[in-house]
Specification:
79% helix
Length: 233
């Protein structure tokens, strides 16, 4: 009954707000991936980096992403999608800002790995949240819209590289990349926890409250749930 009522919710402002919140996460991720591509040639010249060093700076983030995706998915099943999403965005933001303060090649490698770990952890969790709340018949459309934010992130990276880096140096790109830490407050306000996660943890009352809140917000005729905790189908 609980999941059935969730699935029957019409598409409304909540779904588009959730799309915007999760989509911004994808946008910031793509922006960071793009920024390092624009920054690397400048760093190579300024620090006298060898080709293999440039390759490691570019690839160590992807190693972090692979590990982050695997580990964060497991953790999200234990402590919740919303919390892991927030924590990975904070990690990504702080590590990106730290890149601007890098004092040598080794420190930049470490920070880029942490950035990648945060990025890899955030992407699948965001997609999971969008999937779990989007109505079944429109789920594919919402996932496509979510993925379109990746292209916007690359566009933002190109604008930063063209307009700001020549004026303020490569560090400004990473300082801007730290801004998503502020975005976590938006996550806390506008993103509910996954109903399916709450059910899996037997937190049925919290799941019911979310469904009732969504029904009210989407102007759906609502009625109280039975007190039987087993009524979650």
């Amino acid at each position: 009954m609980l999941l059935e009522r969730l699935e029957k919710l019409p598409v409304g402002s909540f779904h588009y707000k959730l799309l915007a919140v999760t989509g911004l996460g994808w946008l910031f991720d793509a922006m960071d991936t793009g920024l390092i591509s624009f920054v690397l040639p400048i760093l190579a010249k300024e620090w006298g980096l060898a080709p293999e060093q440039m390759g490691w700076i570019g690839s160590v983030g992807f190693i972090g992403m692979a590990l982050g995706a695997v580990i964060s998915g497991t953790i999200a099943d234990r402590i919740g999608r919303k919390l892991v999403f927030s924590l990975t965005v904070i990690l990504y933001s702080l590590a990106t800002g730290a890149c601007a303060l890098s004092w040598n090649y080794e420190s930049l490698l470490l920070f880029r790995f942490l950035v990648g770990f945060g990025l890899g952890g955030e992407l699948p969790v965001a997609a999971t949240l969008m999937t779990e709340y989007a109505p079944t018949k429109l789920r594919g459309r919402f996932i496509v819209l979510l993925e379109s934010f990746w292209g916007l992130g690359w566009l933002a990276a190109a604008c930063i590289a063209y307009l700001l880096i020549p004026q303020y140096g490569w560090q400004i790109a990473f300082f801007i990349g730290a801004l998503p830490a502020v975005y976590v407050f938006m996550i806390r306000v506008h993103m509910p926890e996954s109903v399916r996660y709450l059910i899996s943890k037997n937190r049925i009352g919290e799941a019911q409250e979310i469904v009732l809140m969504l029904e009210k917000k989407l102007h759906v005729a609502s009625e109280p749930f039975d007190k039987e905790l087993s009524d979650v189908e």
